[in-house]
Every structure is written in C-alpha cells, then in structure tokens.
Amino acid sequence: MFNEEGIFEFYSNEYMRYEIRKHWSKLKKISKLGDKELETAYDLLLARLTFINEELIPKNIWLQSEKIVTSIDPDDIDFVALTKYLKGYLWTGDKPLYDGLKGNHFRTVYNTADMLQLRSRLTRK
Fold it and tell me: Whole-model pTM?
C-alpha cells in the first residue's frame, strides 16, 4: 500500500506512535523481524504518514467518536475521531475494531483486504 505513489494519502495522529510502541513485541512476533528491521520498517512507515495534531479535532467529533468506539475499544477513539475530522477512511488490521465499527454502522472503515481491492480498482483506471 505504501509503495503506490499517488494512489493513497495516509494520515495519523501522535497516539499511533504510542500504540505501535505498546504493541512492539506483538509486531515483532507477527512480522518475524528483528528489532533493527522492525525499526527500519517503522521509520519507513512514519515517512509515508502525515501527522495531524489531535487538538485540531473539534470537541463534537470527539464526543461522536467516543459514542461509536467506547463499547469496542476506547483506545481507538483517536483514530475514529481523526477519520471523521478528515472525512476519510480508517484502515485497520484490528478485527474486533473493524467488526465493531461495521456493526455500529461506521461505513468508512477498511481492513487490508478492502484496501487491496480498492487499490486494484484504482490502478485499473
């Protein structure tokens, strides 16, 4: 996804950095990368993201996002709020979050399979 210039623009908030570090061991295990390789991948990821300051998001969007996400995982409110603020799409590999948001009629959430399909459609044109 990140190697396709001009197809997608990726945004995140500062909280993402914390979440990645919090789950570092799990990421190492899943990726089968060593610390050095994972650090390199992390740096490449950060280079493709535009970071948005969470303080720019209006309070009403935070409150709406809290209602949507609290029953799923309160740690993900930041990501839903940013998605709503940007009027964008949330890409997640978190199956409970994806299923929960879909169940709450949050239509702008994609998993990796959805993103691959979208990329395929966009690159055919």
Answer: 0.83
